[in-house]
Design brief:
This protein is an alpha+beta fold. Helices cover 17% and strands 23% of the residues. The chain is globular and about 40 Å long. The chain has two helices and five strands; from the N terminus they run ββααβββ. The longest helix is centred in the middle third of the chain and has 12 residues. The N terminus is likely disordered. It has a five-stranded antiparallel β-sheet, with helices on one face. It has one domain. Bound molecules: zinc ion. Zinc ion binds next to loops.
């Protein structure tokens, strides 16, 4: 992972927007067919997500790839991203239609 996301300017690497970032991620609960229970991934560093594009998918993909348990469980189907301010997003891994709901 690069540290660009921790830059104080916080410009999205995908859509180049700034000012639409979430609070830092506190935990990602990852659901995959190969796992009986959702697996909690905790980012090692502050990671804020751009709210203007689908950057959250990139975050989840990276997090899933970074951990041997989730990497071995196959493609994730759902993820719940919880932020340090208590908000969360429920992300379904349908690459066609991005079903995201603010909790
Ligand atoms: Zn963005």
């Amino acid at each position: 992972m690069s540290n660009a996301e921790n830059d104080s300017s916080l410009t999205c690497g995908q859509c180049r927007k700034s000012g639409t970032f979430t609070a830092p991620v506190s935990v990602i609960l990852l659901f995959a067919p190969g796992m009986e229970k959702p697996y909690p991934l905790i980012p090692a560093e502050d990671y804020r997500v751009c709210g203007s594009c689908d950057a959250v998918f990139t975050l989840i993909n990276r997090a899933a790839e970074a951990h041997p348990t989730t990497r071995g469980a196959g493609p994730w189907t759902r993820a719940i991203v919880v932020f340090t301010d208590g908000h969360g997003v429920d992300v379904k891994a349908k690459r066609q239609q991005q079903a995201m709901a603010l909790a």
